[in-house]
Amino acid sequence: MPDKPVTLIARIHAKPGKEDETREELEALLEPTRAETGCINYDMHLSADDPALFMFHENWTDRQALDQHRATPHLKAFMEKESQLLAKPVDITLWEKTN
């Protein structure tokens, strides 16, 4: 049985004063991630009410593609900067479509 597509929702909260830098770092992830095998979409959103709150809506062909994404140099480079940029750890939830 083939793997199911997986959706990831990530909520990212920048530290006060780090909103612009965080946005730049997150935007730098868009192009290389969208080019990855297995990436269906990788969309970044900014809260309409809070300029420090970002959300990613991602769809991947399967868990293996998502796992490969987590091991990419561009994502690892961002993860190394998280403690300097983010007010709290990234809140990640995984979803599977039911129909």
What does this structure look like?
Strand 2 and strand 3 form a beta hairpin. A 4-stranded antiparallel beta sheet has the order 2-3-1-4. The chain has helices spanning 19-34, 63-70, 73-85, and strands spanning 6-13, 39-46, 53-60, 91-95. The protein is of the alpha+beta class and 99 residues long. Helix 1 (19-34) packs antiparallel against helix 3.
Distance between the termini: 16 Å
Q: What is the oligomeric state here?
A: single chain
CATH-derived architecture: 2-Layer Sandwich
User: Order of SSEs, N→C?
Assistant: EHEEHHE
Helix count, per DSSP?
3
- The count of DSSP E runs of length 2 or more, i.e. the number of strands, is 4
Per the CATH scheme, the topology name is: Alpha-Beta Plaits
What is the percent of helical residues?
Answer: 25-40%
Q: What structural class should be given to the helix and strand makeup?
A: alpha+beta
> Strand order within the widest sheet?
2-3-1-4
> Major β-sheet, in short?
4 strands, antiparallel
Query: In CATH's first tier, which class applies?
Result: Alpha Beta
| Rg | 14 Å
Shape: globular
Which runs of at least 5 residues are low in confidence (pLDDT < 50)?
Answer: none
How much strand? 25-35%
Mean pLDDT: 96
Identify the notable features of this structure and list them briefly.
99 residues; alpha+beta; Alpha-Beta Plaits; 3 helices; 4 strands; 37% helix
Topology overview:
Elements: E1 6-13, H1 19-34, E2 39-46, E3 53-60, H2 63-70, H3 73-85, E4 91-95
Antiparallel strand pairs: 1-3, 1-4, 2-3
Helix pairs in contact: 1-3
